[in-house]
Design brief:
about 55% strand; globular; disordered N terminus; about 240 residues; about 10% helix; 15-stranded mixed beta sheet; mainly beta
Amino acid sequence: MRMLLTIMAVLVLPVCDAAMAAEQLIPHSAEYKVRISVVSGRLNTELRRTENGYLANHLIRPTGMSRILTRGTMDVTSEFSAEADGVRPIAYQAIDTIRDDPAIDLTFDWGTDIASGTVGDEAFQLQLDELSYDNVSIQYALMYDLLNDNVADRYVLFDVDKMRIANVSSAGSREIRTKAGEFTAIGIRHQKEGSSRITTLWCVQELGYLPVVIEQHRKGKLNFQATLVRYTPTGA
């Protein structure tokens, strides 16, 4: 499979032509087996269409003996549109009772180029100098850009109460066997500047570039892995 990671500095096609030609994300549900350090769990994801674009929900629950070590869930939701210039986030909410992190409620206002919301009890407001993403919409932005052969080498990500640049690079391709099947996947790696965490999405073309394996390394050690168990396209 040819590598589709392409760096495009300028979109040369007219916006109307690009929008008409754009490949769209595939609504679906998926289930992953998850390991976070020594804790195991399940990640259920859902992507569905809305009047404004798409709504994605990711929910992690501990399973098996891990429920003795930790309780709670990690529940994150992102609403976004998919436009000529790519995925554009609208709103993001995160509630993590596994790690007991502060809840996040974030709104992107592209009319004023302001991101505002709360982290725990603290309110914030940030200027959006360029297209920026939350921790869920970045996955779908990369999938969308892969579909349209338009992956950039940098994206801007929300991080608690500020924006950080995430550098993107290719991790090559590899054969991956999961309970959902055997796939040839291409790896897309991103890392926030100043962070020791590196996230790699192993994406499969025939699944609309859904990642069949998601890995996060910190200081060279694997501390998070999600492996696809089930994938169901859900149509419109």
